[in-house]
Amino acid sequence: MEPTADRPWLRSYAPGVPATIAEPPGSLVDLLRDAARRFGPRVALDFYGATTTYADLADQVARAAEALRRLGVARGDRVALVLPNCPQHVVAFYATLRLGAVVVEHNPLYTAQELDQQLTDHGARVAVVWDKVAPLVRGRGTVETVVAVDLTGALPRLKRWALRLPLPSARATRAAMTSPAPGATRWADLLAAAGPLPADHPAPGPDDTALLQYTGGTTGTPKGAVLTHRNLRANAAQGRAWVPGLRDGAETVYAVLPLFHAYGLTLCLTFSVSIGATLVLFPRFDLDQVLDAVRRHPPTFLPAVPPIYERLATAARERGVDLTSVRYALSGAMALPPATVQLWESVTGGLLVEGYGMTESSPITLGNPVSPARRPGTVGVPFPSTDVRVVDPDDPSRERAPGEPGELLVRGPQVFAGYWRRPEETAKVLLPGGWLRTGDIVTMDAEGFVTVVDRIKELIITGGFNVYPSEVEDALRRLPGVRDAAAVGLPGERGGEEVVAAVVLLPDAHTDEATLRAGCREHLAGYKVPRRVVMVDDLPRSQIGKVLRREVRDRLLAGH
């Protein structure tokens, strides 16, 4: 496909990047099967030095699939995963898919109330969870069987032995990784008792649903985005095509992004498998642990968010850790400051480029070329097989001129099938012709480079996670002394946004900022708790009484 007036961005593609991809046949199950066939002896997973080859991973997936089948999981059933990054997460993900069932990812930092809402919505009967959060899942939604995962079971034998030593440090580390889960079924016991799933067990097809990934809009009500095997395989193939310098069976990817997030899931769970990479897993981002792993197993490709690049580059320079193995880095989820690009590239000698996506598009749709043609400050150009339009938000049939702000629409094989059991919500974002309304205001120049100007959706993105303002506001309104509240995102010290709330108190209320923040922690995951709470006399409202969050944000920025 040659560059045309409606696809000028093709001229900016890095050498070797195709205009379109051949959509891979089959499902994500085939993706892993092919990787095991091509790269069987290669290390697929590294967890604190404990390694799993692709052949071993395929075997564990087959046994876990049989274990889940014995629990009654069948084609089309939803299986909830509430896990940090660990080998068991990867195994449970692919085992669920092997049965033709649907993975539903959940953040293990969620409160019981937040989990209950999503578990009730999708109706999973089986949940595979980190044993430390098992009590929060038991009895929630429609869950009948809780399978508890002990992270220490995946550690190297010496590290497992060290955790049993009668030392305060060992006890503290063990307590942070695992805890008893009475009443739950143990994951390790299930796998030990199961043989492999029969090879002739029906496998899913490309158009079957693979994943429900919860996201939300201005209402703050989480909705399950339905992503098919075709969607996720296509996005992995697009990512592979975008970086032609990658070497199949020779890369090492660091999973510092959570696998339960759309960005981490695609870059680490599917893209990495598609190229036979070694995936180094971290339960959470810990600077010391990552730098230790660099000495053991140097990374070559690092998907992350801007604060991680800044902290890693700064620490590596200070401690003399060599990061020059990282040839490519892809940043997303928040704006990438040019200063962070300069710092990272000066330390590593590799390229750091920014991309753009959303849960509803599996998630990546745009990326800066992995070449000197990249433009820091923009989110790049459309991926192969992806079309974009910039339109009038009030009338999507009207195109905007180059450089004129408008709503970004995207179309491609990675665009989702709709929201789980929410046809009205689906109709609002999926337009005729397969166009997805992103809800983001952008400009696109004559060469096809896109710059994000603002968000129609009033989501707050902090640390790469979405925070829905109404969730924060509802938590605040429950607290004694609070009459009303508005939550907005303000620029954070390290880039991105932080949650800030403006609160109107009842007359004669006796409360303060610390008390309100503490009260929020009872209802919200830690990253959703406002970093600041500002007491105000009133909130700006529209003529129909709706709080105008944009004006709240402007007032807070102005210090009023």
TrEMBL record:
Keywords: Ligase
SUPFAM superfamilies, sorted: Acetyl-CoA synthetase-like (SSF56801)
Keyword Lyase among record annotations: no
Annotated ranges, domain AMP-dependent synthetase/ligase: 33-420
Residue ranges of the region described as Disordered: 367-386
Domain AMP-binding enzyme C-terminal span(s) in chain numbering: 471-546
Transmembrane portions of the chain: none
One Pfam family per UniProt: AMP-binding
Single GO MF annotation: ligase activity
UniProt xrefs under PANTHER family: AMP-DEPENDENT SYNTHETASE AND LIGASE, LONG-CHAIN-FATTY-ACID--COA LIGASE
NCBIfam families named among the record's database cross-references: PRK05605.1 (NF004114)
Name this protein carries in UniProt: Long-chain-fatty-acid--CoA ligase
Species of provenance: Micromonospora rubida
